[in-house]
Amino acid sequence: MHYLRSWIMEELDISHLTERLLQGKGEMTPEDKYETWEKIKILSMVPWFISSSFMACLCSSSLSHLWCQNIRLLIHVI
């Protein structure tokens, strides 16, 4: 489980987005700020969703195949 968490956090790192917000305080347009915040919100929720789906995949033997397919699809979309 620790490996999964580390992998998720590496793949969905938002530090570049937060630094962009901090560095561009007076230079970013409101539209850019809004778009950056939207990305941060989405990427902040994805690790929770993936972890929850993974745990459900482990706990459910009959639906495990479907959950694992959905997790793979989600990771490829991101």
What tags apply to this protein structure?
single chain, 78 residues, mainly alpha, 0% strand
Structure description:
Helix 2 runs antiparallel to helix 3. The mean pLDDT is 76. The two termini are 21 Å apart. The protein is 81% helix and 0% strand. The protein has one domain. It contains four helices and no strands. With 78 residues, the chain is mainly α.
Categorize the overall geometry.
Answer: elongated
What string, H for helix and E for strand, traces the elements in order? HHHH
The secondary structure category is mainly alpha
Q: Major sheet: size, sense and barrel closure?
A: none
Q: Tell me the quaternary state.
A: single chain
| Helical residues, percent | over 70%
Distance between the termini: 21 Å
Q: Could you list the spans in which at least 5 consecutive residues all have pLDDT below 50?
A: none
The Rg value, from CA coordinates, equals 16 Å
Total strands: the figure is: 0
Tally of discrete structural domains: 1
Beta-strand portion reads: under 5%
The pLDDT mean sits at 76
Q: What's the total helix number? A: 4
Topology:
Elements: H1 2-11, H2 15-23, H3 30-59, H4 64-77
Helix pairs in contact: 2-3, 3-4
